[in-house]
Amino acid sequence: MEFGAKENGSISVESKALYPEGLEYDAKRERFLLGSIRKGEVIALNSDGTSTRLVDDERLRSVVGIRVDAERGRLLVNNSDYGVATRSTPSDKFASVALGIYDLATGAPLKFIDLSDLQPAKKKFANDLTVDADGNAYITDSLAASIYKVTPSGKASVFLSHERFRGDGFNLNGIQYHKNGYLLVAKKSDGSLFKVLLNDPSAFTEVALPQPLIGTDGLVLTGPDELIAITNRASGVVSNTVFQLHSDDDWSSATIRQTFKTGDVYPTTGVVAKGKLYVNYGHLHTLSSALKEGDELRETFHIQHVGSE
To answer: For residues 198 and 211, is the Cβ–Cβ distance under 8 A?
Structure first.
């Protein structure tokens, strides 16, 4: 992956109050998918430049991480509530989390799995998710210091919970499945990266990094030895940087190959489409203050071309 944004590499998304967090690409239909923190929906940006609402489910509050499971024709959607969605409920703030599963082609609901009772006494925020080769979903909870597992049949459980995953603000966030049988998981608050074996999660290890990647939100595994980490802000650090990480030892350690500064756009996550890396510029850092002050909500967002294979 070679970094370098092109002048014409920015895709404008015109949708008032969308505030997208999750970004995916449906290769079969050649369309980007964006999940909305504010509206609790998933929209599709079609190849002809039009946009359509793909998932419109009243059970969704804030759509956070989304994941295309092309092999099974599914779109997996994390649902959380932290008080900024049009359907937010005060009693459910940091208490209601769920996984919605939808038909990738039509957006029709297939399953809706409530995860709130997996950690009943803790604050919860289902953030990012990934899918392994067998179709199991793994979901990071940024507040409950946990990773959840949901099988293809819909059975949910706590896959791993540990005090190391606690910290100030939002913690576990970006997550990627590696074909060698483990997960790579980022902790936003302190910039650490973990390797979690699927067959022995309690024996997780920390990936040795040359520096903490504070503010890591999304991860994109662009090859077995290359990981993209997208950072915004956390713990008083404003990073707004895309990092290209490389590992020569199966992710016991990693080095930084390249960086790309995004500007103050609160980049959240990214996706590879047709050999190009795109990053979502969601401006989420402006949403809470706009709601509090009664300001106009943002109407334009961007999917930025950052690099190419």
So the answer is: no
Task: Give kind and range of the element (H or E) at residue 278.
Answer: strand 276-281
* Six token digits for residue 131: 């899918």
Quote the percentage of the chain above a pLDDT of 90.
96
Of 232, 117, 123, the residue nearest 174 (C-alpha): 232
Query: What one-letter code names the amino acid at 303?
Result: I
Non-local (6+) Cβ contacts of 302 within 8 A are 10, 11, 12, 13, 265, 281
Token output for 64: 């956070």
| Adjacent-strand bridge partners of 52 | 44
Amino acid at 222: T
**What 3-state DSSP class applies to 271?**
strand
- pTM as predicted: 0.97
Each residue's pLDDT tens digit, 98-111: 999 999 999 999 99
